[in-house]
Amino acid sequence: MLVNAERLTTTLRALARFGLNEDGGVDRASFSSADRQARTWLTSWCEEQGLQVAVDGIGNMIVSSPELERGIADRAPVWSGSHIDAVPNGGRYDGPLGVLAAIECLTRLQEEEVSLERPVRAVVYADEEGNYAHLLGSSALARGFTVDELSALVGRDGDRFADTFTAAGGDLLAAARVRLPQGSIHASVELHIEQGPVLEREGLDVANVTGIVAIGGGTLRFLGRADHAGTTPMDGRQDAVLAMADFVTRLPGLAREVGDTSVVTTGIVKVWPGGSNVVAKMAEVVVDYRDPSTEKAAALGDLIASAAQDAAHRRGLQVESHVEPLIPAAPLHETVRQAIQASVQAHGYSSRDLPSGAGHDSQNLATLAPTGMIFVPSVDGRSHSPAELTHDADVVRGANVLLGTLMRLAAAPTA
Ligand code: GLV
Ligand code: MN
Ligand code: MN
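Above: the input record for the complex with manganese (II) ion. Below: its predicted structure, written as tokens.
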């Protein structure tokens, strides 16, 4: 059985309209108006296919087929999902591919009236790209958030999660109650673009993902003193920008010290009060660091924290840090990997195993249920950029592998 290639590629282009900017990139931060419009469109699209959409307390959307679920709705389901929020000026495939392919698979199963042992559901996870917190929606499912934790979240634009979320119709108490018990999901599988160069370079169709990196992050705020830019001697300053700069330039060396698989990124910096003739009183930097080993990522986090203290003290400043809980590395499950491999072989596609350096909701799902991921090639390995592209033929091959995998997982005996 195959997916409907025309329908899938058309819906991918349709979803890309929401938040499309003049660069050809997508600005669709979670809970923004573009995100809300995309969700409304997606809900109508699902309903037109005869599918039903439920939304949980934090905004994860769960799509089901009442027709396929007759008599089996209370069994632990197989989930397949990804996200539709985007990084600033992001691409058109990171997330939407996995969501729309899962919906396409569900539609095909329904059209063919395939008899299943357990439900298959397509899922849209909220705020995967961490406007407010990395993998927010799936973290809420896997480990839960308290109302206080949710109230403390601040977005990239400085807005409070609580304000934006409630303005979008959300309820913090409900958001704090979405955690799922173990055993509530039978298995999970996500289709995603590779976001790197390996599959294209090796001329392969798909990858069967072996595991996902550990991700740490946090905000470091250097506290200095505002002074006049013309009258304060260079050696009499407590310049928050210089302390932050000293710190940032040390980071690549710290990653190398931990190992050649470690990476660290500082994609957001802010300075106060922000006058060209004022020595900065405060400078803030958001750090993202990763390694395939949870222990190495934790070690890198410790080095980063002490480097921040060191950079501040050398210039007579203080530093405040807000550290996000480390998201552990997730090895993916053999049972799901075997189902993926069987589907790849049945379609006659070429494949290899590959680890993921990008974060995915699947690393949270892996703490709840056996989980796997399928990658398809990214042109030039580009992602998190308007240059992100995956050819239609690869989109369709990936979705066909997903369909075969879901059928295998949902047909497994219930016992
Ligand atoms: C998501 O794309 C991430 O890797 O942060
Ligand atoms: Mn991404
Ligand atoms: Mn993604």
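Notes for the reader.
The chain has a mean pLDDT of 97.
The first strand starts at residue 52 and ends at 55.
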